[in-house]
Amino acid sequence: MTDLADLTIAQARAGLRDGSFTSIDLLDAAQRRAAVSEPHLHAYLTIDREGAREAAVAADRSIADGDTRPLVGIPIALKDNMVTKGVETTAGSQILAGWTPPYDGTAVRRLREAGAVIVGKTNLDEFAMGSSTENSAYGPTRNPWNTDTVPGGSSGGSAAVVAVGSALGAFGSDTGGSIRQPASLTGTVGAKPTYGLVSRYGLIAFASSLDQIGPIAQTVPDAATLLEAVAGWDPLDATSFHGDVPAISRSLDAGVGGLRIGVVRELVGSGIEPDVLGATQATIDRLADAGADVVELSVPAIEYALSAYYLIAPAECSSNLARFDGVRYGLRVDGATTEEMMAKTRADGFGPEVIRRILLGTYALSAGYYDAFYGQSQRVRTLLRRDFAAAYDQVDVLVSPTSPSTAFEIGSKTADPYTMYLSDICTIATNLAGDPAISVPVGLGNDRLPIGFQIMAPALGEEVMFRVAAEVERGAAFVERAQLATSEVVTP
Amino acid sequence: MTEWEAVIGLETHVELQTNSKMFCGCPVDFGDDPNTSVCPVCLALPGALPVPNEDAIEGILSIGDALNCTLTEHSLFYRKNYFYPDLPKNYQISQYTFPLCVDGRLEVDVDGEATTVGITRVHMEEDTGKSTHVGEGGRIHGADHTLLDFNRAGVPLVEVVTEPDIRSPEQARAYGMELQRIVRALGVSDARLEEGSMRFDANISVRPAGTEVLGTRTEVKNVNSLRSMQRAIAFEIERQIEVLESSGSIHQETRHWDEAAGVTRPGRTKEESEDYRYFQDPDLLPLQIDEAWRDRVVERRPELPAAKRARYRALGADQRTAELLVDAGDLAALYEGAVERGANARTVGIWLTGEVVRYLRSAGTDVGDTGLTAESLAELASMTDAGELSATAAKDVLAAVLAGEGAPRAVAEDRDLLQISDRSAIETEVAAVLDQHPEALERIRDGDTKPIGFLVGQVMRATGGKADPRMVQELIRGEANG
Amino acid sequence: MPLVLLLAAPVACTGTISDMPIDIDIARVAGLARIALTDDELAEYAAQLENILDHAERVQALPTEGVEPTSHPLPMVNAFRPDVVTGSLGRDEALAGAPEAEDGYFRVPRILDES
Ligand SMILES: [Mg+2]
Ligand SMILES: [Zn+2]
Question: Which CATH number fits domain B423-481: 2.30.42.10, 1.10.10.410, 1.10.10.10, 3.40.50.1820?
Fold first, then answer.
């Protein structure tokens, strides 16, 4: 018999509807899987047994009354930078240890209203700053494919729980690749929506002009279902998109016949591992075979994206994280004066990567440097948007690898921050442009670790993006599961 | 000896009395209980985001319009970054480049001399929380610890910045008063300095008269009335002149006005120069104020104090009366009501700004709590103009009307205070008195005017004081010359 | 819609950084950021920042004269809320996370350093 923890959301939904099992059964399966995998992974920071059980009981009652909404009764995990009322939310930081929010973020509220069962909060790089989930104040998360390697980051916890089956779906946040890169490294599907498509209200801010909440799932249709549950205008987020939500999952079966697909020249060259390039090329060939018109083209300003990102994101974070001062919530370290208390609290409460970025951003915004750093980076952003616009004049979507490499070993990149930053080389540009992008697993590397393929689309181009993603998924026929998720490991 | 000239610019913060705060749905009208009008947004809880209050934007546009500003089409919110415990986010959402209103002017008048004060900008921001310093008499110096109440955090705040066009403490006060009148007339704020809903900071420097170069300025804060603003500026000007005349130099610094001691003192010295790291707030969208919106603001502009004063002057009020009436809105309403009912505007103005104000002051009450209405005021004015009441009698009648004892005519009749202004009745009394005093009449005819007073007195006595003395005198003179 | 203005955030031009040696007054930066660091920590962060900025300086190479900066990924304007009271947290809820509270207030140490 199939372990319910191995089901996709679509399969679980069908089973709930026809009465094969209950939401409680699904929750039990996910929690059993967590019990086995967590000692190896440390993907969850909080497991909300009580809240999840209540939600599952309510979902079962609702399903019995004929509720067929796509997420009702489905166990979902949330990255711990998403604010959950009554459930500890730390953003992976010591400075928020023990903080129990008095409110729900909008995406969280929509998930609850959709009947989803929120099983727990997942680990992340502190305040989503990192590409490996090693920067968590609560210890790293490991990759279920090989626990000597990282799951990617910063949404490494969310990616790991989906890969291992301790939740059927999860949400993360993506500021420079933090959903797509861990999805790539864990063999899952991860999507960053168009900036503004999902409300940021209740997402603990890292870089406001770049952050987006998005789904991580086992399949492309599951990712579409998750995204549809949270997308749409929110009066509590001034930057949320006030218009019609794209028909995200309408064209999943439409194929790619007649679509024009552009391979981004700058992202298929040096710096990308050969087996990643090989898998990327194979995927592109399959898309061409499926009827797409494939061309290679250039988005020149991508060369500058990483530099611009590492000035913009720290600048915004230096201001966003100023509120953590020991006055109203979170950690306080005593001091003789308020100023001293604040400075000590922040020194002790933030980890080194967060401090590094706050200092970098403070410097970049300070008088005399503003225009050269922040101002210039925002102009680079304009150039990047222009280059993307020119590319989308020629093609419907752009493609590239998601990550330059498969999962790397824990500790291998922590010594040099800049080396770590290079992990985001393929993903950052779309955050700067505000465009959507998705990562789909397409195979395994020589190290038997997953390789992800990235599809990028113009703003609000989710429909065509998911359409291509679904074709990539069908073509890749990627059926392998993480080692920790296989039955010989999980069955005692 | 050098003649010195003061150069003063004012920064004014005005709290807008909207229903809800600038960026969240907490009420602006909160009670005394601390931390009861707070939410995730204004407490800066992790994850919370600001969304601007549309009416607050409209409020600032109306202020900008009233100050003759250009309402800018494209405007932006910035973050002003600095750490302070009463500032929940440790940045204030404010404006920097592209404020909502720019390049305005306000005419102010000191003793009939008009000055135009340039308005550099009017921008939108948010208020901070309130700190209570515990220990050492509630002062920040020597305090043991501080208590924070965030009810006020996030209340919409408008900052009005002038050009350094003000030259005297009196002008500064006049500017403050006129700005206060304007925001009150617009109905956007009660603008009370004592309660902090209007706050002034003054940038002050001095320079030798006739020179153009600006001296080093100090910023004076902490004035909680217009009178203390005037005193603080006067003190600071004198202090700077003294320093300069004794070959000292002025340091650019913030100084706090000590009301009790009547001096300004240096504020907290900061080792680091201010570096607010302004950048455009990525949580907020650009503002686009289209023509329709700007037109709507102009259309809704109420009659502003200057226009109202001009109208009252045209009706015959003198400058002082016009000012007084405009400043006391409830008296102005009575004034307009009485004039509408046909009363002489001058007479009404004199009564209102004289006897009525005296009565209200001594009784410590508002005119709304008295029996005086526009109707009764109009009646009183026409009775005095027609000579039906003597000045003394009119005062008594007014007092009775204010005390709610009835309408003027009824009161005058009740108390038998009506003057005899029936000419023939008085003629009869005059003839009788002249018959009794032929010698007095002779002396008047010989050119001696002294007996006129005596004869008037006799007639007044005979009529029990109710004859109109002007008419009596006129009749006696008529007889003597006839 | 004049996109150029909507996205504009003009600031005083302070020259280019390419001829500006990166020399960070790290103690001042840490002060502005309100983070208490030891001298050793400061030195380490300064070295790391200089290394990152050496790479980030790359953005200087791109000619951007006449290019308006992008501050928002989507060219949207005017998101407002109506002036309606939508409620507040209860005071207990507001103070629940406070490291120190007193009589309904958040409590902090004294503001001024008078040692
Ligand atoms: Mg201000
Ligand atoms: Zn609030």
Answer: 1.10.10.410
